[in-house]
Amino acid sequence: xxxxxxxxxxxxxxxxxxxxxxxxxxxDERNLSxxxxxxxxxxxxxxxxxxxxxxxxxxxxxxxxxxxRHASRDKLLQLAFGMRLDIRDASELLERGGACxxxxxxxxxxxxxxxxxxxxxxxxxxxxxxxHGERTIMPDRARGDHRSQ
Length: 149
Hints:
Blueprint lengths: L6 H7 L4 H7 L7 H12 L3 H8 L3 H9 L6 H10 L4 H10 L10 H11 L4 H10 L18
Helix pairs in contact: 4-6, 6-7, 8-9
Protein name: XRE family transcriptional regulator
């Protein structure tokens, strides 16, 4: 069972001793590469399938997952769709990749979260974004073009 990451914040704001907070905190300092590898292994998602579903350039995707290339927030979102992550794990992937988590006060992020939650592919997410006047994740893809599925 995953530890509640909010618990240390609660302890700190209620004047807990720092050494006590550190002693009981669940610390996870894995980088994006290690986190993604563990996440895919836990879900049984083969790396090559996640890369294919992400619609990322294969070489670039392998470099992101190996930790040798930095990715933009949109490329990380593509990877989140490829890995079939839920909202929480997609936010974790974004943060570990050096980008802002999905934000519930941002229209584009809400649409992305909706798509992730409902298990639609990256192309369908882009269609939802386009239909709501938001910037798509894959900007070079023509709307309604599902040939890459």
